[in-house]
Amino acid sequence: MPQTGLMLFKGHTAEEALAKVHQSLGASAIVVQLKRVPSAGVGRIWGAMEIEAWAQAPAPPAPPQPVAKVRAASKEARTMDLLRSLGLNEESVRRVHQSIPVSGTPLTNQEACLQLGAALLAAWDNATKRIPRTPRRIALIGAAGSGKSVATAKWITIESLRHQQECRIWCLDGIVANSAEFLSQHAELLGIPVETTWNPGLPPFSREFLDLPGWNPSDPDVSDRMANLLDRFEPDCLLLTLNAAYEASILQNQTMQFMQFRPHGLLLTHLDECESPAKVWNLVLASGIAVFGTSSGRFIPGGFDRTGGESWMERLFQQV
Ligand SMILES: Nc1nc2c(ncn2[C@@H]2O[C@H](COP(=O)(O)OP(=O)(O)OP(=O)(O)O)[C@@H](O)[C@H]2O)c(=O)[nH]1
Ligand SMILES: [Mg+2]
Predict the structure, then answer these.
(1) pTM reported for the whole predicted model
(2) Which of 219, 234, 265, 314 has its CA 20 to 30 A from that of 71?
(3) Alpha-carbon distance 118 to 232, whole Å?
(4) Does ligand 1 lie within 6 Å of residue 272's CB atom?
(5) What distance in Å separates the CA atoms of residue 111 and residue 3, rounded to the nearest whole number?
């Protein structure tokens, strides 16, 4: 970095890198760049990443400026307005704003945007903590018709054909029968075994998927049965599947209702019908659970991606 006065800080997460910045340069330090880079240590061998933060101490107080140049709005109001201009709802604006360290120095727009970006990334990193890097026992849960079976069909195709993993699918009934015929047919085409009754005696495969019919968690009987099936399957990657084209209020409501099952991440479907990064950020900030991946389109395979916070942040800033 060519500018003088800049210092480099590293961490495993954005939060950790920022904590080091504030410890060393104080709460009003200015973070001018935050990026994810391959880890410098032995972790590089298995593709581990770390966060680099370039930061500098706050500038000395500026000489008095002509009144016309001084912004009327307070710094606090400006940060909140910036967050609103990204399309975030009031709750998200408040959450992100609260996580930004208080600084006495006026910031340029670019500096303020960098601070917001850092705060958003830190929140995302925090929300990914329970998502394994390489999921092995995967269960998709969610409301009926949210796109679980289509997403599962796409995912097994990638694991089986691209990653050459030995896959198995458990297509189990809930309170209603599991009618995902297309999933079984697609699995057969790939030579993937499909089990329709639970049998813990089978030898484990490197990737096991649980496909359940959707349900309404406000029904305690159905929820008990589903919780029981999930307990037996013991997923290391339990994803709440949400149709991203739904109204934000419906998504928030479904997320709240399914929280009792302690999902590790979110899987968003119907991305072909909805491209609202602000809606995605509102969900992640409110639930504290990050998006593991997305599925866009009804056609199998295709349109299945794992996504990280940086890519959603870019999308958020691009729309402004
Ligand atoms: N446009 C679009 N349609 C989708 C997408 N994902 C699924 N669908 C359609 O949505 C409907 C429901 O998809 P499924 O995958 O069967 O949903 P499900 O969650 O498994 O449904 P249940 O098992 O009944 O709870 C089907 O008609 C799919 O073709 C998507 O990403 N985009
Ligand atoms: Mg299904």
Answers:
(1) 0.79
(2) 314
(3) 39
(4) yes
(5) 15
Nearest CA to ligand 1 atom 5: 298
Nearest to 60 by CA among 34, 35, 28: 28
Q: Is 176 in the pocket of ligand 1 (CB under 6 A)?
A: no
Cα–Cα distance measured from residue 187 to residue 270, given in angstroms and rounded to the nearest whole number: 22
- For residue 13, the 8-state DSSP code is S
Domains and their CATH numbers in the chain:
7-59+74-127 (no CATH), 137-308 (3.40.50.300)
Closest atom of ligand 1 relative to the 303 alpha carbon: 31
Rounded Cα–Cα distance for residues 146 and 240 (Å): 10
What are the structure tokens assigned to 287, written together? 């639930």
Rg of the chain on CA atoms, in Å: 23
Give the residue ranges of DSSP H helices in 50-191. 75-85, 90-99, 109-127, 148-157, 181-190
Both tokens of 58, joined, read: 């706050």
C-beta of 117 in contact with ligand 1 (< 6 A): no
Residue with tokens 């917001």: 116
CA of 275 to the centre of ligand 2 (A): 23
Ligand 1 atom having least distance to the Cα of 146: 19
Beta strands in 256-311 (DSSP E): 265-269, 291-295, 304-306
Residue 275's pLDDT band, with cuts at 50, 70 and 90, is: confident
